[in-house]
Fold these 2 entries.
Entry 1:
Amino acid sequence: MHDIVPIPPHVASFCRLNSMLSHIAPLSPYGRDRVAEIGLVTDAGILESLYDDIEAAGAFLAKLDEVRRDRLFWHFGKLPRIPQLNVAAPCGLMELFLFKKFLLHYRNICDLVSEEFRDHFGIVFESSDLLEALSAGSRDAESFAISEGHEPGLGPIRARIAEADQTVAQRRQTLEAACQEAYGFDFAGREFIVISVDRALAAIEKGRRGEAPSLAAEPYDAHSMIVRIIPDAVLLGAEEDRRRAREEERLLEQTAIARLSGLVAASGGALARYCSAVKRFDYALAQWKFVRQYRLVRPALLKNAAGDVHATGADRSDRAPAGNAASLSCRGARFMPLEEECVSRGVPYEPLDFTLDRPVGILSGSNMGGKTCVLQTLVFLQVLAQCGMFVPASHFETPVFQWLDVVGEAGETAGRGLSAYGFEIRRLIDVLKAARDAPGLAVFDEFARTTSAGEAEALMQAIVEHLASFSGTLCIFATHIQCSPAQGKGRAFRMAGFDAGQARATLNSGKAKGEETLEALLARINSLMRYRVVPRDESGEVSDSDALAVARLLGLDATLVDRAEELLNLGARRDAHDKRRMARSNEEH
Amino acid sequence: MPLDASSFIGNLSFFAGFSAASGKTMAMKAALACIRGVGARAAILCAGHEGERPGSGAGGTSVEVWEGEIFSTAASFAGRLDCAPEIVAGELGTSALGPIVLVRAGRRGSGILVGPSESAALAAVADEAMRAQYPHHTVLVDGALDRLSPISALPNAQLFCTVRIDRANLMHMSQRMADLHRRSHLPLWTDEQLRRGAHIILDGPLSRMVLEKYAVQEHAAFVVKDFAHIFLRPEELALLAAQNKLFVQKEIDFHGFIVALCDVGQEECGARLPPEVFASILSWNPYEDEKHEHGLP
């Protein structure tokens, strides 16, 4: 399917997707195959049908009582993977066993599904004859053996074998009993026994005289010999009868296997359909369980602002009308990997409310204020939504993007001569190229943080201005660098940051002495930080960065932080003084 | 001295030895004979297959199976067996001879024992064999000590150690028996010990290298998953055990030794063993005629 593309590894790594996908656990091998095929879907119709499947699975389970639900899951768990059909070669016993087992459990699944949902998932069973043929003469429902039911000629032959077996068993018992009586040896069903050399030799001599069963002996060690009973003519005759009958049986078994293989091969098309249906239904059921477990909702897909998302062209951004921007909005969005971490650490997790209705969003805020987590949350939700999955939010509205990218740390590792900055630039080039071709979503996590402040600021401004001109593409920057998009092309946000009053109270109380464990310090910062995104112009009294307060709370030497604050205030006074002088000078002129 | 059927019926018995040709398969066949002798049936499994060892012919171990007995074999062998095979479970791991299936014999005949190469898959096969025998199960596994851990977690699992002793290896085998006995009687790690002092809980095996790595923490106790995770020299193990510095998180039911003597008398062998090890010998040769005491003329 050309509408499904692999999730770029650095994007999956950035939003820690794989840890979440491991929670989706279909019960059949086909359902598990489907999980392995999860990728980004770029067609809204396909996505809606995937969401429909999940809802249908939920509606179906809601109508099923607990006993039938358990039975359904049990049958899914018992479904084996059927072998590839090879028309040229007959199946082996194991292959026939697997076909039978699959059909048996698949039929039982069909019996548990009402017509409405059978139609939805394409679950039909049209192979009763094949299942009956495979099940002929089996001792239990699941096992498989070639029986008289498959080949009537086997009956008399197997009766002959049973007769020969009985003769062999009886004769062995007779010979063992005779040995016990004549020599005092108790074989007790064992193939051989170990006895002293003298007794062994005496027994062999007695046997040779025909007074008792003949024995064969071989040395075991210096004092003992291994002794076996030599089969007599009756035993050998019965074994030969058995061997001949067995040869006839083998030929008939092969005939039966060939016939059954032919029946299976003729049902190849139906079997392929069953496998597809199982894959779809089992996957949808697993998705529904995931939805219930993590309180997920169906994403609302918006028609992409760029119109037909499949249309491509290098000049798209030039042609697109200015008001044709994509938008993305979430309420109560949860970044599940972090939420789980917060639960395990016993700290509250704050869900995200965020709306971006312009091409560019710029998010600034405190260190440790949650900027990266906002980006991770948005990418996480978008990836899930475009993988055809429900999302952890109370509401999520988004377009279908043709590509997703992350520029920043995102699991990148320096290498092949490129520094971290070099990697960022390479990734940026990819983003620009993709944005020219089709609408997408790109997030930039602390872009250009490793280069000089002045150049970084200039570069950022240029990139923001350029990206804002692409229609349908959304770009979100988390940064400390000052930059602003052109009027009407972007929105500026900031993290709400420290609760100033509480932070001051905590610092004044001297609670942060640096003697606590890292866990305790993080918990304190967590309790003071407001992990909310607010529009930049409504940020109130808080400053753009709480770096010094964070450093103090983390236990950095107070004299160092005091000095840094002194320098900061000095710089601020100089800036104010310069501005006043500039204003006076302007007035004089 | 023949084996006693009651030791096996209702249990999962794992036969392992210190080396190849230690008599595991023979001991398992002897156990099977005595189980059949009381009218019961068993499932017969093995780890890997006979041909895995370099120099031995490829193929599984041939064993006579009776009607109703279950055994593991390679799927490619199943169609060739003369015991009216009925496949009861498939997809049970693989071996060099192909996928493994569990087969129930429809009548007396020849079975070829092949088991999965991986320890976890062997435990899955054993678990499936127990299900197939529900409600009563008796399972015999021709195994190896390094495959013991996963299978020992199954209900009623017990270990039998087979030893072949001759004049050349008498001293060495006596030491190894004492070593295994010591390992199988290590104390269980409990919450009480947790409170007592420093300890190092190991995920992997305890080897000499691990001992050296933690040498600085000389007062700390080591905690291993089970005794199959200990790879120390006897003297190193004896020292740790004597200092009460080695614990296991899970006990394995070590049932005893099955010894086959060759040119060595029971008394001579017994003289080399500590009394508690001597007492844990279940049989001096499961193929020995009861009237014959081995090693004596």
Entry 2:
Amino acid sequence: MTNRLRIWLNASGIGLLSPLAIVLLLAFIAPVLIMFPTSLHPYTPGVGIGEGWTLENYVEIFSDSYYHEVILRSLGMAFSVMIFTIIIGCPLAYFLARMQSRARNWLVLLVIFPLLLNLVVRSFGWIALLSKHGLINDVLLSIGMIDEPLKLIFNLTGLIIGMTHIFLPFMVLLVMGSIQNIPVDLEEAAAVLGSNRTRVFFSIILPLSIPGLLSGSILVFILSISALVTPRLLGGPTYKVISTLIYDEFMQLLNWPAGSALAFVLTLIVLVVIWATGRFSKRWMAHLT
Amino acid sequence: MKTINKLGNISVMALAAVSTMSVISQANAAELVIGTFGGSFAKATEACHVSLFTKATGEKVLLTFGSSVQHAAKIRATKGNPEVDLAYMDISIAKQVKAEGLLEKIDFASLKEYGDVAKQAFDVDGTYVNFMTAATVIAYNPKVITTPPSSWSDLFDKKYAGRMALGDITGTSGLHFLLAANKMNGGDLNNMDPGFKALAELKANVEVFYTQADQIVSLFERGEVVIAPWYPDRIGSAADKGVPVAVAYPKEGAVGIQPTLVIPKGSKNKDLAMRFMEAVLSAEGQACFAEKKYAGPVNTKVTLSDKVSKIVPFGDNYQNLWYPDSDVVAKKRPEWTKRWQRQVNR
Amino acid sequence: MPALSIKQLRKTYGATTAVDSFDLDVAEGEFVSLLGPSGCGKTTILRMVAGLITPDSGQIVIAGKDVTHVPVHKRNVGLVFQSYALFPHMTVFDNVAFGLRRNNLAEDKVKERVITVLSKVRLEGLEDRFPKQLSGGQQQRVALARAIAPEPTILLLDEPLSNLDKQLRMNMQIELKRLQRDVGVTTIFVTHDQSEAMAMSDRICVLESGKTQQIGVPEDLYHRPENKFIATFLGRSNSFTASIGKSVSGKLVQLDLDEGIQILATASDKVASSGKVHVTIRHETVKISKNPPDKSKALNRFKGKVIYRAFSGSIIDYVVTLDDGPEFLLEATNVDGERHALPGAEVWISFEAGAVLVNELGDQ
């Protein structure tokens, strides 16, 4: 038995993964599992976490329309951020990937730059740009495109703008990697066969950068749906998402059971998204590799 | 490609796990571990309380930072074997942790400073001591609003529509403003309808519901917000840095905030922790904290400078403070939070 | 009217001139090769014709229409890449149909045409395969089918056979040539392989450093090279520097090789004047024999010793050092399968006066 196990372990190469697996298990999976029982206890304000077992925390999430609204908003927000990073990120990634000049490294650095900034600096930047008397409103007002300042911050719009901004680098880098793997010959072949630039992009570049696009989309979606600080700063409490709700349950109300239950619902959503995307990409990749 | 995809999936899952679950940080064992609040509060703790304690005892202190709830969460997670020997936390959270049986009983009468401190500062059951007074007051931009506001009702003035901010209920100022509005409109802690009704109507005027106390500094700075319920210590610190903001105490009475010190059950340095309490409660410590952090003293022997006494709850303003019953607040807060989320913030 | 007419084409990259004053006229249905070492500018010319590179100056006229400033996707040329550049996410059918669909052809017409073209390249039944599922040769043919499907005015081939192994390359040469005849499409073929160029082309244009060295039918280039570069670039040869000596008769002239021997060459304009010249003698024109050859049969004959012999089936390569002169490399046909003239053997070498190619010395 042990022999067969050893043979299997050697053959599968899983042994190579074991240090990583142990770290992952201890640092990420164990805490999650430990928290699961917590989500099944009742909580009484002023008294604490009860000893009994209950499904009430989950029942409440599934029966209360407030939670539905928050979950839908979170999904919608993460989805919009994903779409916007795709719309902005793909052309940008294409431009950077096909750039010949040495300036490329600097431009890539510029794209990554928001990631390197301290959150406080970043949020001051957002306020300077997006607030009622911020740069964008000032410009739009002065060129007469609007009469009243637009509300671009402390609402869903602001949240989506901010999240798109910080998560754009992930999309750009992943899609850029994919595009760099596409031989320039393919684009030229399509052009010679009568495709203009737009058609080349949609018939060749886009389908062939699906692997990067999918990884980027999953990453952006999950980063967005689980982001906490940015929603708290830019969305304000009016535009609650699942992560801020979890934070409130844990950190403001000390209601760990309800917070854990919400956290598990979020984790479940994330896993479903990963699973579904994985299936889709497997199908797509079948004939490419 | 396949492996990359798999790795991607794993890292994505890891990311998800990290961002959804909180990871409890470890503090190294030192002489005395104190959990205090971050930012300027931590600096004041260091300058006033720690230095005094170290001078008196010669012992070293390790500071860890967090909010009241974060300290409470830590105490709950390390039940009976706490990492911190003494924690700063708001009275409502202290009462919650006390109800869960997580606090040491302290013989307050044995404290050196016991006689000098107002008696109501001590918990009758001997678990926490209120070491300073703060409050939720009105912050306003004195350049724009030349007549200082004098009532909570000024916040309801239509001319501030789109130029005012409120705290979210998850922060103290949001809760206090709700309670003040409720009381002003004839409600009490058992009948919150008037308060919620008033706020639901006010909602349209609110530019932002802030969740982080310092979030509105830049809004005051840029003149986007000119009036908001806020805290005197934050207002004082911001004004010192040149932000156009000043303190106004409403005539209905500012809502009192009572930060406390607690010793978690099982602390291995209970005696030292009590020496630290003495340092915090001493006239010297209290005066220092009042000057540096605009904290209202509880030690009756303290005298304040003119500037500070205008900002902190002192004199008439101190007498006027309203303390909502924190037992009731602790019990009802989750319910109010839910109602707020649905009626004010939706 | 030529199918393709290129006039004074020029392209520079910084200080390097890739293509300089290039002229070429290609007749309808003609197969012309651009031949040269790598970096000679042949691919640059091809890409300028396709519209993938903009020339600095000059003119490109396809079927009477000046296309110098027409964008690539409106030129209606077919291009086969060295890498084939098949679209990996599309089936063979969709690859071949790609250009047709861009012409807004009705889908049933597209289908008809794709089937026709695929049968021309003998790939019937592979419509639903993806490129990854095909062999190198099959991919090559899909690339060809895709290029000819929209009936381009000109077919451009960029070293299309260089990624195939030797055996397959020979077969594809024949197939490609046959297909080209069959379709009748004007073709420009870029290659660095001279035997490939000579085997397939109606005319060859040899390029060096962005300049045309000679254009002509393969036989002219091989037997009547216009300059030293062509003489040495094509085929395998012995190179010498010589001074023009006395005229032997009206038809013959004596050349004094720097290596110290005298040879006789056919007189021409190139050897009319005295001075230094470059002499090329191809390997296969030099004969080797055990006994001295008849003087009437070989005007140039020398005694020497074999120092190297390499047998490679149909031919045998020799290196012979002359008793009082230079080394000669030569190539003999294997006629009897015997082990003649092993290293160390005393032999005679000989060649005709007409086998001596004389060109200007040029810059050394």
